[in-house]
Amino acid sequence: MKKLNYFLAALLGLSLQVAEAQTPKGSVLIKNATVITVTNGNLENSDVLVQDGIIKQIGQNLNAPSGVQTIDATGKYLMPGIIDAHSHVGLDVVNEATSPIVAEVRMKDVVNPYEVGLYRALAGGVTISHAMHGSANVVGGQNATLKHRWGSSDPADIIMQDAPRTIKFALGENPTRVHGRGNGIQPRSRMGVEAILRNGFNEALQYKKAWETYNAAKSQKGNTMVAPEYDERLQTLVDILDGKIIIHCHSYRADEIYMLINVAKDFGISKLVFQHTNEGFKVAPEIAQYTMGASVFADWWAYKFEVYYSTAFNAAILQRNGAITSINSDSAELIRHLYHEAAKTQRYGGLTDEEALAMITINPAKQLGIDDKVGSLEVGKQADMVIFEGHPLSSYAVPQMTFVDGIKYFDIKTDKDDQRQRVSPTEMVEEVMLTEENHRCMQDTEFLFETANALFHTNH
Amino acid sequence: MNMKKTFLKASVLGLLITGLISVQSLFAQSDPTGKKPVTSTYAITNATVFTVPGSPGTKATVLIKDGVITGVGSKISLPKEAKIISADSLYIYPGFIDGASQAGITKPEDPKRPENFVSSNPPDEIAGITPWRSADDQYSGSSSQVNDFRKAGFTIAQIVPEGGMIAGKASIVVLGDEKSTNILKNNTALAANFRGARGMYPATAVGVMAKFRDVYKNTELTQQRSVQFTSNTGVVRPELTPTYSAMADVVNGQVPVLFTAENDLEVRRAISLQKELGFKLILTGLEEYDAVLDLIKSSGAKVLIQLAIPNDKAIKAQKEDVDEATKAQYARVKEAYDQALAQAGKLEKAGIPFAFTTVGEKAGEILPALRKMVEAGLSENAALAALTSNPASILGISKIAGTIESGKIANMVLTTGPLFSEDAQIKHVIVDGLIYDYEIKEKKKGNGNGNGEVKAEGTWEYVSETPAGSSGGTITINKSGSSYNGTITYDNPGGSGSASSPLKDISLSGNNLSFSFDVAAGGMSLNVKVSGEIANGTLEGSMSIAEYGSFTLTATQSPTFTANK
Amino acid sequence: MKRQVKSFFAFLLAFMPIMAMAQIDGEFIKPRSGKFLLQNATVETITKGTLKNTSILVENGKIAQIGTSISAPDAEVIDCSGLVIYPGMIDGGTQLGLVEVNSVPETVDYAEIGNFTPNMQALTAVNPNTEAVPVTRVSGVTTVMTVPQGGLFPGTAALINLVGYTPDQMYAGAKAVVMNFPSSARRGRFDRRSDEDIKKDNEKAQKEANEIWERAKSYHELSQKGAELEYYPEMAQLAKVIAGELPLMIEVNAASDIQNAIKWVADKNVKVIFSGVDEGWRVADEIAKAGIPVITGPVQDLPTRQSDRYDAAYSNAGKMAKAGVKVAIRTNESENVRNLPFHAAFAAAYGLGKEEAWKAVTIYPAEILGVADQYGSIEQGKVANLIVATEDPFETRSQIMHVFINGYRIPLSNRHIRLYQEFLERSPNLNTH
Description:
- The complex is a heterotrimer.
- By secondary structure, chain A is α/β, with parallel strands linked by helices.
- Chain A contains 12 helices and 17 strands.
- Chain A has a domain at about 80-370 and about 440-460: Metal-dependent hydrolases (TIM Barrel, Alpha-Beta Barrel).
- In chain A, strands 1, 2, 3, 4, 5, 15, 16 and 17 form an 8-stranded mixed sheet that branches. A 6-stranded mixed sheet of chain A has the order 8-10-11-12-13-14.
- In chain A, helix 2 (about 115-120) links the parallel strand 6 (about 80-85) and strand 7.
- In chain A, helix 5 (about 190-220) packs parallel to helix 7.
- Chain B has 3 domains: about 1-95 and about 400-440, Urease, subunit C, domain 1, CATH 2.30.40; about 100-310 and about 355-360 and about 375-400, Alpha-Beta Barrel (TIM Barrel), CATH 3.20.20; about 460-555, Quinohemoprotein amine dehydrogenase alpha subunit, domain 2 (Lipocalin, Beta Barrel), CATH 2.40.128.
- Helix content of chain B is about 25%, strand content about 30%.
- Chain B contains 11 helices and 25 strands.
- By secondary structure, chain C is of the alpha/beta class.
- Helix content of chain C is about 30%, strand content about 20%.
- In chain C, the strands form 2 sheets. In chain C, strands 1, 2, 3, 4, 5, 14, 15 and 16 form an 8-stranded mixed sheet that branches.
- In chain C, a hairpin with a 2-residue loop joins strand 2 and strand 3.
- In chain C, helix 5 (about 195-225) crosses helix 6 and helix 10 crosses helix 11 (about 355-360).
- At the A-C interface, helix 2, helix 8, helix 9 and helix 10 of A face helix 1, helix 10 and helix 13 of C.
């Protein structure tokens, strides 16, 4: 009888949890690792205790409270979960490409927790990715910051709910091609891109004023003023102006980067991160002084004209000039070895281990506004962690286990090969994709270029 | 299963009561056609009647008068004017109700793009935002698709307009006499989906969701402004666009949104919009939903699932002698297949009353699909409820439909056996008191060898399943000496009615009958080839048109012409 | 580590402008030939083990001597104490030199119009002055196979050294006729053909390949007999494969395609190389049994199927090698061929092992392409393609200190490095008014 009650209680407790849709949090003790804290140096032969998803203690000879699993990591490296500040993995739609400004669209609406790319990212130690709108618009949609809680069917479970809002901007070739050349409207040039931005922000200011005037008037007696039209596009721009949203801007050339800095200054915007930023090195002092830095590729160049005058030393130059710098993937493939991409800053510019690793942990965390929660191994932070065999900056490094909130979502030894969560009941033979489109910055814009599909193989 | 195209051809009973449905104005004629009904009261006696889902079938008589059920029971007294229809061996179920249907719906032409068209800011009508459209305007009750679904047991359907993200308003119709408008209720729901507009804003699901919010919130504001405008002076006249006007009753909670959501992620998207904006929600078109049973339940949304199951080609194509890796792959496909089949049963167990939608489905595949769902765990009671009382409740017509009870519309399905048994066939469908009769196909015996004489000559009634629905007509073949000649009738491709062509190259070798004919369509002459096997007075084969593909064709030889004894 | 970085910068500084000529700032450093003595290094020969405290004499473009006490008073001595010398790496498949900026069609020269164009010569279109050449060679990749793309027989690939002012000066003595084996796989997300269409297309392409092959055989047989045939450069080129003059490099990736390709070549008696071979691990035993060598890659790539283990591409080379296949590694890149050592490192870490991985970018591609007598290892008499590094060049922290190609000492500069030099400390720094 007692037993029955116990089961009932367990059952009820379980269903209660489901109803509240709380993200799962785990407890674990990792022993004897070389702990790479990123923010406080390396600790040899040290332990990290996680309880309820939070790092509770870092030190030596820690004991596991009862019920907490211990993992022996002797000879291995433990580092914070890798954060990718530019990804399109886990999204059903990437571009609402149809208008130069689509600030109203929300990538959170189309998060797909089943995409196996999320698991593959975990297998590369990546615990958080910034699932971005594409680069077809000067002002794209609002992005989603994802925590890779693989296995959930609820998009809400993999969205990092405590991350601030961010939005995609894009300058240069992509928006000018889509709108100017594809649709015959502005912008067709980098001049037009600036005009779109200034037009948008000025309209937003008018919009804000219209609502303020209305809100002030409506409670007055004998008010005859009616509510203005609701426009989430403009409201979102207002939110940017009010500092509620961090801009992440796809950009390549120095001139356009400089332009956006000037626009931001004119409108009092300070929350600004540049993405790709291949020529960021040319305006590194300006980026360092006025923005939240740049998130760059380790070595991509020459796939399109605006990245022809790039250098693989970009990250190092930005770093040495004091810009917050992160290394990102923008690719379902690259996201799996960001530790290796970060390591390239040692070949190209001789950055230290700490600087290199910061570029995939605490620096992207800063750029996403989540550095108080993740991005380093510190007591009180969320327990997103990776165990590596070999130093993570070695080309031979192999991630072994990946944890999000103290729960293990990747284990090289015990995971089954086939990680698909959904399988078609009607497909006899599985598709073989030989040239998988890794890079989806321009996905969903195909219809604008039906005669020139070839263009899309190189558009980031 | 074969049928006669409409009651016009066959059903004597049906003809007897048509006059009651369409009110005719007096023009001082008696009925020289002899088709005028003699009575409008019928007693279907001694059948096994399932009055409401969940109750066992009992032997009873159902009394119908003027299209309304006036009595159900074993001891009801029959009025003298009642024509008795003996149904000793038949089973009677409430007429099926289709929660969302596009049978008989023709998509309106896309409006022309204006001169100054900009894809970033297209007019609502072009972008697929047409809440003012009504399914009524797109519906034709005489469509062969409507016939098909009636033949499958459907008597009432909520018809849904074709269109973009906000396609328009649905209506509820009776699948009855095509001379009637058949409309039970219009403006019953707003049809919405996540389909983007091609090449313009909003082009993708993420844009559609943003645009939906925009339309919704601005409808609310427009209403506020209208209230201000009518109750004060000095207020600027609000701009009443067709979109905002037509959305008003949705925003006011009078009309639910019928959101097409095929999989669990789309279900979540629809429910998140509903939670954010507060409209009444009916989810429709669900195909993959076992991950969101709890969410559906807690949201209170009503549910119409696809009345279809995945095809089993992949399952059947699995081979025996394969390596372990392939075996594991097979297992996952099989598992996915089984899971898909078991979903309806899980929905029942979760305590969510649901009904079906037939959008995108073929009428002929519906009963087999339903039987598979029952095999996979859905209870027969729940399956019947999903066809009858649940949709009646979801559509708000429980008072008049969904069960066999006095006072309700005389909508019923009469089968030769228990509905979910493999052998059961639908023999009659009663809609609005109008009786439609269908051919009962004998169980196949042998393959036409033996005693079964194979004859090409005679009159054949045929049905062909094409992507545009089923069409049919009559094939007449005469034998003179050793050669054949004949004609075929078919739905006139140039408009209404039927057309006919002479048959060419008729040949019968063994059981195999083949011939061809030419159809004039759109200024071209199409050559149509037909071939098939004859067995027991049935021709089963295909009809092929070069470049268009091949379609199944089934024909039955007369004289198995009327079902009414 | 720190010390090494410093020495690298010291090295860079050595090449900084020394004197100013009239109106021209700085001096451009060119590759230069000469007699060089690389003294006192650890030498990884690849074929003859590791040699400690060993010196190498480079003379007339060749490795003239290897030993512990070489006397060459007239040689320019380069102190290599504490450094490691490896043979230059060979990338078995790239588009290097055939494209400058991929999205600018005017700069794309790797694909010609037509399905049967084996006479298209990659070597003709190689741009010796492409920006990608100096960017690539400072990473230690000294030699690459540059491969045309496109139809069924898109052209003839060529092996080039990353030094020289004309294609002929770059040519490293190996060519191969390229074939894209008809595929039953999807080409990517944009490939929306139905399964049946894919099957039909595949059958059609197979048939076409067979017909072309038969014609090439006839062309070969008739011309052997001395027949004067009509001008048919496509057939003439493919006939060279049949005659055994050139290998056939078959790009094939899906498992079932690989099996078909093995069957297809079985009775043809020609020299065959498989390239790509993404799903080689599924049919590794069959490839090994057929004795066909493989140039596989990229290694840093996604699995071909959703159900595959995440590391399917990383571990492909290792699994094939384990089954007994001779495996070389390629990047299939153009501007980022410099990542070849990292692709090799990933293959090493996921099952191939470091030693085999090194061979996969040195001696194996040389053997597969028939130039092992000249390239692929540090042996006396071979072409002096050498790299000197602070440590294992597969590691990103390793710095490449010296590169020799064809005996030329290569300046360790390129646009990436020059931009670094200019912009690391920009002047003026921030706007000052």
